[in-house]
Structures are given as structure tokens and as C-alpha cells.
Amino acid sequence: MDETPSNLSRKSWLRHVPLALVGLVAIVGAVTLGDVLSFDTLRDNREALLAFRDQNYAVMALSFLAAYIVIVAFSLPGAAVASVTGGFLFGLVAGTGINVLAATIGAMAIFLAARWGLGATLSAKMEASEGRIHKLKTALHDAEVEVLLLLRLVPAVPFFVANLLPALVGVKIWNFFWTTALGIIPGAIVFTWIGVGLGEVFDRGGSPDLSLLWEPHVMGPILGLCALAALPILVKMLRGKKEL
């Protein structure tokens, strides 16, 4: 049975609902949760959190994982606080693992929401277009993995941008997944490491120094990884010029 134009229009509209929901929750969260998901809240509740963790480790780990996924999936404020909290509650190894898993799942959720709706429309238009837009899409696909890794490794790229942009240009789902899981590890280790020593910082009456990410001994290796990810892109660009 052929679908009527009204049914097709309704289905097309429904495809945009997930991303619209993400946007709505993000706006509400930015207004209402800015002061809740903070280091002050963590400081005030740290004894209760540590006690609960010691008595219910698995429940705490799963609850934290779920909360972090929601924060990332809906682009809520507090992602940095969550990353540091992972180290504070679970240590460097387990904390990094939980942080990476939660951030990856959350990123996949917003990526799929964008890809199913607006991303599908834009990608189809880019595929059908000619000239510079089509060449841009082809170039992105030729260096898809390298570009995705760069988006994750460069600290200056906001996380939600690195989640949305690939969906809008139609990158492969698998490539987005594994480059996200791999590319966020360096930054996750840094934030989790800060969280490991958070108890001592609170005891001194201080707040965690997130500027550590920009210290030369931390930024140097990350920039080195960025250069490695960018090198294949540069090589392909040079080869393309020679062929012309």
C-alpha cells in the first residue's frame, strides 16, 4: 500500500522529535541545573556519597554511569564535574573506564538523534548537490576517521559540537562510535586524575584546578596525538594537489 503525502510528511516531522527533545531538555537544564551540578554540591555531599559507594559499589557505579549518560546525551551542564567525580568515587582506572563508557554512550545517543532527523535531510541534500558542497562531502568521507579523531582530541572543540557535526554530514555510525571511545581517553584520564586527589583539595578548602588540562606536560602529548591524526589528512591533501 502506497503511503499518502500526509503520512510521509508526518513521518518526516517525527524524525526531528528526538533532536528537538534534546534541545528542549538542554535549554531547561542550562537554566535549572547550572548551580546544582557543581563542585560545591559535590563538596557538601561527599561524605554521604563515599559512604553509599562503600556499601553499594555496584549500585553507585551504575547510577553514576546512568547520570553521566543523561548529562552527555542532553548536553546538560556539569560534564566536567561528572568526569572529576568519576575519579573521586572510583579511582583512576575504574573512574576512567566509567567516564569513557558513559561519555561514549551519551555521545552516540545525541549523534543518532541528530542523524535520524536533521542529519538525514542535510546528508541527502549534500549527496545530491554538485560543485563545492559535493566535493566537501567527498573529502570528509575520504578522511572520515582522521577528522573524527581530531574532533575528539582537540580540547578546544566543544563536546556537543563533536557529537552533532558528524551526524549532520552523514559519517558512518561505527566510525563515530570507535573514534569517540578512543579519542576521548586522553582527556578522560586528565579529568579523572584530578578527581582522584579531590578529597585533599576539599580538605584544604579549595576547588579543583581544571586548568591542569592546559599545562604543557599535559597538553604536549595531546597535541602530539592531534598531529598524528592530522598527518594522514595532510598527506591526502598533498597527493590530491599533485594529481591535479
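Next protein, fold it too.
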Amino acid sequence: MVSLISAGTARQIAPKVSEHVWTDSSGARLVAQVRKGELEFLLPCLAGTTPAVPVRDVHLVGDETVMLELLDGVEGEMVCPVAVELEDRAVLAHSGGRIEKGSLVLAALAEEVTVHADAEVYSASQDGDEPKFAEDFFIPSGVFSPTEPSPDWTPSAHALFAGEVIEAGTPVNTFTGKAFHRVRVRTIAAIELDVAIAATDLEQPPVRGNIVSGTFFLTGSLGLQPPDPAEIPSKRRRWFRR
């Protein structure tokens, strides 16, 4: 892990804070934040390539998670509030922890997932008495607090969703030597996100036209840029010297 962080692209966020991003050719990514030489934050994620989604009211909650509102991109209406873990969290934190609006490239790591051949098969799988969901639903489950939340409860970057597979592949992580399924999914409001699924979770690789549903860990990037290095003071100016 240390070797990956060292091999990553580094950028200075503040005098004592740096960010290191390692990206594999497969799209697997590791983002590390280092403060005073100590690892402070580590985020395994997938390098997103989907069109950015307009968002607003972006703000940190707790040390790692960000809350924001996903917009439909047409009229600017809110689709839903959602919690994500940002690749550029360090830049957001350094700039005050909040921005009014931006554009989010969204990605997800599958935790529990089911793949259906198509929308018809997906619909037929819900014939029981349980509530039925459309083939493009999205529920930001991580933003709902438990009935009796603890005093330190904060939203988590989790969601339940389903969507149509519009691109699919099975790349190999060159660091681990293991293959995983990488799919582009189109869900509610035509929002697209890249999803990584462990190869061992499925008997067959997903293909275009399948419907993927399940629970996911959400990550993303706002494309935030750190201050110019020339604007980061290396140390406090000493006005009086002996």
C-alpha cells in the first residue's frame, strides 16, 4: 500500500497536507491524504469516466463524507440528496468544507449486486408482495438515520440503485493481478456512473442491456483544484530577526 501511495501523483493542498493519487490502467484508484508525513485518509475507488452530474449544496459531514444534492441536469431540479466520499475531499476541506454548486463524476463499488438479463426479467423478479422498484431507481440509503441514532451518527456513502448496463468490460488490476467487472450504468434521471463489481460476485460477466441492482458504496470527484503552489506559504514570515 505504501508503495502505491509513493508511486501516485502528488499535489500539495496546504503546507503540511498533501494528496497522492494512484490510478491503474484498469481504472482502479487509490487516493491518500498525508499530513505531516502521516497517513490521514485513504480511499479505494474507481476512476470515473461518465458525464459529470450537476450538484449543489456540497458540504462535509464528519471527517470523510460529503453531502450534496444531485440535480437532473435539465431544469436543475433536485433528484435526491446523497452522501459520497470524494476523491478531492482534501481540497474541499482546505477551501472551507463547502461549495454552493459543482459537477460530480460519480462512481460506485458494488457491495451486494444482482444482474438481470433485461428490464422484463428484472420486473418479473419482483412478483412477490414486496414493494416493486423501477429498473432505474436510486435510494440514497446512507442519508437515512436509524430510529435512534447515536450522538456521533453521520451519513454514509451508501445507496441502493438499479440501472441499465450501457458499457461493460472485465479489466485486470495490474497491482493485484485480479480481474473485476467494470460497467457503466444508467440510472434515475439518466444519471450515469461507473461501477466496479468483484468478479467472484457473479457467475457471468455483465453485458449491455442487463439490469444491475444492489447496494453500493459511492465515490466521486468534483474536479477541485488545490491552490497554486506559489500561494501556499512554506512557513510563517518572521518580521523580527536577531
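About the second fold: The helical segments are 2-7, 89-94, 119-124.
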